[in-house]
Design goal:
Elements (H helix, E strand, L loop, with lengths): L1 H16 L10 H7 L7 E10 L11 E7 L3 E9 L7 E6 L4 E4 L1 E2 L4 E2 L2 E6 L3 E9 L5 E11 L4
Antiparallel strand pairs: 1-10, 2-9, 3-8, 3-10, 4-5, 4-9, 6-7
């Protein structure tokens, strides 16, 4: 079990360490800093996000990912933003057409570092990533899961 985690970590060292842009904290360090935020959740996937500042008057650039999520599973998405970039990553979770989870509180304008999502209906979900106000940003989002029983 521990060796599997080491192999996964080494894979991401290789994957994230190969970026052509040299930023002090935009790569492997983000993974290492974010991983403890999963807490008791089992690591499933990571999403490195590097988006440059949007041009004036244009909407923020968005990175999209589709995933199959299972009912009876609780998912946690945790974010770690590189300190040298001003952008705060916003993560949205959609089912076929509705927003079912977000790291952004639209009423207060506050961005959160994690989302816990209790999946009650299995299927394809769409995860979107973008930086608040189209700012320049580099972040990582880790996804974890654990089983639960819906009541």
């Amino acid at each position: 079990m521990a060796s599997k985690k080491i192999y996964i970590l080494l894979f991401f060292v290789f994957l994230l360490g190969g970026t052509s842009e040299a930023y002090s904290q935009c790569g492997q360090e983000l993974l290492e800093l974010c991983y403890p935020k999963l807490g008791s959740y089992k690591y499933v996937n990571s999403f490195p996000v590097r988006i440059k500042k949007s041009k004036k008057g244009e909407p923020p650039s968005v990175m999209k990912q589709s995933m199959v999520l299972n009912s009876g599973t609780k998912y946690r998405f945790v974010v770690y933003n590189a300190e040298e970039f001003e952008g705060n990553l916003i993560v949205n979770i959609y089912n076929s057409s509705n927003l079912v989870g977000t790291s952004y509180d639209y009423s207060s304008g506050k961005t959160y570092e994690s989302i816990d999502f209790d999946c009650k209906k299995p299927g394809v979900y769409y995860i979107t990533f973008y930086f608040e106000n189209g700012k320049d940003g580099c972040s990582i989002c880790l996804m974890g899961q654990k089983e639960w029983k819906a009541q």
